[in-house]
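Hi all, long-time lurker, first post. I run a small reading group and we've been trying to get comfortable going from sequence to structure in the token notation. Rather than ask abstract questions, I figured I'd post a concrete chain and ask someone more experienced to write out its structure so we can walk through it together at our next meeting. Sequence below, copied exactly:
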Amino acid sequence: MIRSITQKKSEEAIDLLLNGLNRIFIIGCGTCTTLTRTGGEPEVRALKEILSQKGKIITGTTVVPVACDNLTRDFLREFGAQIDQANCLLITSCAFGVQTIARQLRKMVVPALDTLFIGKETGFGMFDEICTQCGTCIIGETGGICPVTNCHKGLVNGPCGGTNHGKCEIDVAKDCVWTLIYNRLKELERLDAMRKYQKPRNHQGEPKPGKFKLPAA
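-- Answer (accepted) --
Happy to help. Here is the structure in token form:
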């Protein structure tokens, strides 16, 4: 399952963000950050205890089903009085969830987490980045394996000269993605696809902030 992968901010970083904000309502997320154990019910309770010991007034806490969903506003209505008493919302969700809640409620929002990447669980407690959302997808020519995300150098033509017995020279415990691509294309009898030269990536191809509009029917 695809998730936003997050990590907790340090106590010092949160203290700085909460400077001058003493009445706090804490909001967790029931999907991604619950799975990664960075922003579910246990983490919300721990934050409440830590901040209470520092003299902060916690007006209430909750874990919304999906923080980045537009229906979050409806879920939070039952906590209206507690939210009104707070001068800040401390949110343990990905950045998308924080921004969604910020648009829905007229309250100062503070993220308790840093959002790292879009990833997939590959083992118990292990999450690998699967897409950098670069906007120039070439996996149709690389056997469905993304070299931009999986190569430490982000090479779209490979392998580099440092690959050694199928391992990456930067991380010897990591398989060289171009070896994986070679083996995959060989299995599919599509090795000729590796002969195609991929143009250098245009890192400024999509102006920021990105926008997309469906074409007229």
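A couple of things your group might point at:
The chain has two domains: 2-116, 132-195.
The beta strands are 2-8, 23-29, 57-64, 88-92, 109-111, 113-123, 126-131.
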